[in-house]
Specification:
The complex is a heterodimer of chains A (354) and B (528).
Chain A lengths: L10 H27 L4 H32 L6 H22 L1 H4 L1 H28 L8 H22 L4 E2 L6 E2 L2 E2 L5 E3 L2 E3 L1 H23 L1 H11 L1 H6 L4 H27 L1 E2 L5 H14 L4 H21 L7 H15 L8 H4 L3
Antiparallel strand pairs in A: 1-6, 2-3, 4-5
Helix pairs in contact in A: 2-7, 2-10, 2-11, 2-12, 3-5, 3-6, 3-10, 3-11, 5-10, 7-8, 7-10, 8-10, 11-12, 11-13, 12-13
Chain B lengths: L1 H22 L2 H4 L4 E3 L3 E2 H19 L7 H28 L11 H7 L7 H22 L2 H21 L5 H35 L1 H22 L2 H26 L8 H15 L11 H23 L4 H20 L4 H4 L12 E2 L2 E2 L3 H23 L2 H11 L1 H6 L4 H27 L9 H14 L4 H17 L7 H15 L8 H13 L1
Antiparallel strand pairs in B: 1-2, 3-4
Classes of the chains: A mainly alpha (354), B mainly alpha (528).
Chain lengths: 354, 528
């Protein structure tokens, strides 16, 4: 945060804190109100929390892409939501082909694996192309320039997919995967009045596993070490013999692979694929990255889960209209930026505020 | 050897781009758009230009320039190779049914790619187009620069008029027009400067007189324009004017103060809804006030909203600001659409029966009437923009844009000046919203999507960030042209996206750059 000369009363600070406190008081008041009414029992909250964890896992995986790139280039890859969309889209054609040939029904696990790998690969190709064509030539440009480029790229990708594959909504086929008699992907089970969909647990666990893999990659491998070095100081890293361009491409590729995997998982329970599907998850994942502290890998994970839970439980908890779900994410973003601009875990930004 | 490789590499890039253009459906859509009737359609021109570009790039990438025949040969090879990509595409589309995945891989596309001659005969024609286009591109590189400029001006004029006429130009008319514009441009470049000098000398002696004449002519044209244009053309001009008005507002925020605001549509929404609430008898408020009462309130509401949004976010760095404002724009749209506020704002049904402004018994209804209202708004905004940007405030904004820390160190109150930029820009958008609401007589939440913000941002970036004439030019190019060329409507957003990227890569200062930016650039080169 910027330290400013302290006047007698810092007016803006007062107003800002006023707004923040008012929002917090509102939240607390609504929670107490809803709790005292007791309309909703634990089953509602339990199923919301499970859904929130799955959705949060998706947000976290996308958020990692923002955070990785930001950590190294200090740039918001605005088109990251479209990279998520692109992978999901290409994945759709693969899984659709498997469903039509019957392979998906007979061998669901290999079919899904191939779908996911194709989606990840497509996202990676998109991201690398984007970096090469649109971002690399602008690495030394003023900050506004790459940001506008990224906005343009995001628009271009959305409408390129629309132009190539049509305007219609694509629907992922119903998928079933039985393990120990439980349909892990398509099943709905009734447990004491609560509808349980195992897919949410699967998505949550897979997301955690992928994040763990990323964490190990960044901490244990030579490439990961190079990434951390470049994030610390590009010029010095180059002097130490690290190929900075390659590291940057690798960063984009890693983020894109996670986004592509997230896309397939998202589509397995959300089903619908359109050319605009990347927009909201993209912005929310960015919010998650800021919540956790942008540039910080565990922060992105934490922020993603927090946002997923907040979005799924707050509408009932606060007694708000479900339509206003999207407002919650943005209000959270504003609150965090007011009270803790560095995010929950982040100190990075304050040190390197360029 | 390296020349050959260069020519094939260029062909690969051009060929891939052309395949992409074909697969998003652009070639099929423009096949019925004649430029010279019976001779050339827009699709054929695009094919030719693709080959031309391949030949041109090949030649300009060569190290040595010796050998006219060699250079034409390499260009022709490159053009033909680029077209070969499309030929392969045509064969594949003909043999395999790809339509379930790629919606534009249709038999119509094969027809277009083979220039209506069918497979395999059409492939020969396609390659011939490549050879001719590529060779022309290579030759283009070797002819004198002055002739190139004049000829391309003539070509652009033929293209524009051919498209605007709808049924294309007569071949003789096209040739005549090309010759006339080319020669005219040549004459201007040879004698134009001496004529201009003569005028300048004259102007120096009679400054007040020439200025009076000039302004009278400009005013007369602006005032009489809607009488000359039809209803449809006037409503296009109105739309351009409305976007120019808002573009000038966003220009203050982005261009002068350097704050990237992606939620600009929010203030437009606020202006429109405030006007709707105050003037429509059908709104929940049942006020039915006059437009003249409503617009200052709309302006004030938008400016206040700008300040309120600005207070928490203006301490953020640029990229944060972009996302937060984007989120804000979405929040406003969601709130306006939600059932929670349906009682007041009408939910998805919006507010209807918004009356046009009434002035002494005269009601604004037709686009021609609104033209004058929008013109007045634009003029006011231009005057305010110019006065403010030349003032102490404008200089403070430039300082903030260039370096916040230095600006603060020189005693500029960052928050105050940023807030000022934010609310001034927002208030322009609020006026735009007020005029919009009374023009279309209704407001619906779906008119206020993020795409409006992106449109406005694109037009100021293409026109020239920080430049008033640039913003107006940008509004004409990005709002006016797509309205006239309806076939382009499907490709509008993808073009905007590509334009944003290409402009940032190739010409970040825009088509009509601001003087100050130009000065800054030259100052940089002096220091270096």
């Amino acid at each position: 945060m910027r330290r400013r000369a302290a006047g007698p009363i810092d007016f803006t600070k007062l107003v800002v804190s006023g707004i923040g406190v008012a929002m917090l008081v509102f939240v607390a008041w609504r929670i107490v109100l809803t709790a005292s009414e007791g309309t909703y029992g634990w089953p509602t909250y339990a199923s919301q929390i499970v859904f929130g964890l799955a959705q949060g896992g998706i947000y976290a995986l996308i958020a990692l892409g923002y955070t990785l790139v930001y950590g190294i280039l200090f740039m918001i890859n605005f088109a990251h939501g479209e990279i998520f969309m692109g992978g999901t889209y290409i994945g759709f054609f693969v899984i659709e082909a498997f469903a039509e040939s019957g392979f998906l029904q007979t061998h669901p696990l290999p079919a899904l694996l191939i779908t996911a790998l194709t989606a990840m690969l497509s996202s990676v190709v998109l991201a690398i192309g984007l970096e090469r064509i649109a971002y690399r030539p602008l690495r030394k440009a003023p900050r506004l320039v790459p940001l506008i480029t990224a906005i343009g790229a995001s628009l271009f990708l959305q409408y390129a997919f629309r132009g190539l594959f049509g305007t219609g909504v694509k629907v992922y086929p119903d998928t079933h995967l039985y393990i120990a008699g439980i349909d892990l992907l398509g099943g709905r089970y009734d447990l004491g009045g609560v509808t349980v969909r195992p897919i949410y647990f699967v998505v949550f666990l897979l997301a955690v596993a992928l994040m763990l893999a990323l964490w190990l990659f960044v901490q244990k491998t030579k490439m990961g070490k190079a990434m951390r070095a470049v994030a610390e100081d590009k010029d010095t890293a180059a002097l130490m013999g690290i190929n900075v361009d390659r590291v940057i491409v690798m960063t984009f590729a890693l983020g894109a692979a996670l986004a592509g995997a997230a896309g397939v998982m998202y589509a397995l329970y959300n089903k619908q694929v359109t050319h605009t599907m990347g927009f909201f998850p993209g912005i929310k994942a960015f919010t998650a990255a800021v919540l956790g502290g942008i540039g910080n890998i565990p922060g992105a994970m934490l922020g993603g889960f927090f946002l997923g839970l907040a979005e799924s439980t707050f509408p009932t908890l606060l007694g708000l209209d479900a339509q206003l779900k999207d407002v919650i994410a943005f209000s959270l973003l504003v609150l965090v930026l007011i009270f803790r601009p560095t995010g929950i875990l982040g100190e990075v930004l304050s040190r390197r505020k360029a | 050897m390296s020349d050959l490789r260069q020519s094939l590499r260029t062909a690969t890039i051009v060929g891939s781009v052309m395949v992409f253009v074909a697969l998003i459906g652009a070639l099929t859509a423009f096949a019925d758009e004649p430029i010279v009737s019976g001779v050339l359609t827009l699709t054929q021109l695009i094919l030719l230009l693709g080959a031309f570009a391949a030949g041109y790039r090949t030649e300009s990438g060569r190290r040595g320039r010796e050998g006219a025949i060699l250079s034409m040969g390499l260009g022709a090879l490159s053009g033909a190779a680029a077209m070969a990509f499309l030929g392969v595409l045509a064969v594949i589309v003909d043999l395999v049914n790809l339509r379930s995945v790629l919606v534009n891989a249709t038999p119509a596309l094969v027809e277009v790619l083979t220039l209506d001659r069918g497979l395999p005969a059409g492939l020969g024609v396609l390659l011939a187009v490549g050879v001719v286009g590529g060779a022309l591109g290579a030759v283009w590189n070797r002819i004198p620069g002055w002739f190139r400029r004049e000829l391309s001006l003539g070509g652009a004029a033929v293209l524009l008029i051919g498209i605007l006429r709808g049924k294309g130009l007569d071949p003789w008319a096209a040739a005549g027009l090309l010759a006339a514009i080319t020669l005219g441009a040549y004459a201007y470049s040879s004698y134009g400067s001496s004529i201009l000098d003569g005028y300048r000398r004259f102007e120096r002696g009679n400054e007040s007189m020439t200025r009076l004449v000039l302004w009278t002519v400009v005013a007369a044209v602006l005032l009489l324009l809607p009488q000359v244009l039809g209803v449809y053309a006037t409503s296009v001009v109105d739309l351009v004017g409305l976007y120019a008005l808002m573009g000038l507002g966003l220009n203050i925020v982005v261009g002068y103060a350097g704050l990237l605001d992606l939620g600009y549509v929010a203030f437009f929404t606020i202006g429109a809804y405030v006007t709707g609430l105050l003037t429509s008898p059908a709104a929940s408020t049942h006020l039915g006030l006059s437009f003249w009462v409503a617009w200052p309130v709309a302006l004030a509401a938008a400016a206040t909203a700008g300040a309120l949004l600005g207070i928490p976010v203006l301490r953020m760095r640029g990229d944060y600001l972009a996302i937060v404002t984007l989120g804000f724009g979405e929040i406003i749209r969601i709130l306006v659409m939600s059932d929670a506020l349906k009682g007041i704002l009408g939910g998805a049904q919006g507010i209807i029966e918004i009356p046009g402004p009434v002035l002494g018994g005269f009601t604004f209804i037709k686009p021609q009437h609104f033209y004058y209202l929008i013109l007045l708004g634009c003029l006011a905004v231009v005057v305010v923009s110019r006065r403010v940007s030349d003032s102490r405030i404008g200089r403070a904004w430039v300082a903030i844009r260039e370096d916040e820390d230095v600006a603060e160190a020189t005693g500029i109150n960052l928050v105050r000046y940023k807030l000022l930029a934010f609310s001034l820009g927002a208030s322009f958008s609020g006026i735009g919203g007020a005029i919009f609401a009374s023009w279309v007589h209704a407001v619906f939440p779906n008119s206020f999507t993020l795409l409006v913000s992106i449109n406005i941002l694109s037009l100021i970036i293409v026109g020239g960030i920080g430049s008033i004439p640039g913003v107006i030019l940008g509004a004409f190019v990005l709002v006016g042209l797509p309205e006239i060329l309806r076939e382009f409507a499907d490709f509008r957003m993808i073009t905007f996206g590509a334009l944003l990227v290409v402009m940032m890569l190739a010409r970040p200062e825009g088509l009509w750059p601001a003087k100050q930016r130009r000065r800054e650039l030259s100052a940089d080169t002096l220091e270096a």
